[in-house]
């Protein structure tokens, strides 16, 4: 009996914006703003809002969401330290936090995206038609972008 050679499919790393300013320029061009409690963009400092090493698909997803929802979008967290670890985390470039301040996201997301259960901590989850996950947290939406669509 001969041996069987199994070949796997290599999983490519997502394309990234290596520099904060490169991703920030894309957000700015799309009319998306951001804020940080410490008014900084250092990805190694808690309280900053950084886009260093953010996935290009995450940036495209936020932009697509803004166009679709017609809401004002303000990012309150990006890839900076201080978030939960994991394969699909802020630090790995998959997540951003979006402000709930004006209520538009609170109206849009539950009425246009499908309820997808709750996290272990009880946070309600919503799944967009594109498969991205929106978690309604205290002052913001924690959004996981698997792709560059809303």
How does this structure look, described?
With 150 residues, the protein is α+β, with helices and mostly antiparallel strands. The chain has one domain (16-144). It is built from 3 helices and 9 strands. It has helices at residues 20-29, 56-69, 104-112; strands at 16-17, 33-34, 54-55, 74-77, 95-99, 114-118, 124-127, 133-136, 140-144. The strands form 2 sheets. Strands 2-4-5-9-8-7-6 form a 7-stranded mixed sheet, with helices on one face. It has a two-stranded antiparallel sheet with strand order 1-3. The protein is globular and about 35 Å long. Residues 1-6 have low confidence and may be disordered. This is Peptidase M15A C-terminal domain-containing protein.
Radius of gyration: 17 Å
Please state the overall shape, judged from the principal axes of the Cα atoms: globular
Spatial order of the strands forming the largest sheet: 2-4-5-9-8-7-6
Task: List how many beta strands DSSP finds.
Answer: 9
Beta-strand fraction estimate: 15-25%
Q: Count of DSSP helices? A: 3
Fraction of residues in H or I helices:
10-25%
What characterizes the major β-sheet? 7 strands, mixed
Low-confidence stretches: 1-6
Whole-number count of domains: 1
Task: Calculate the mean pLDDT score and round it.
Answer: 93
Determine the N-to-C terminus distance.
51 Å
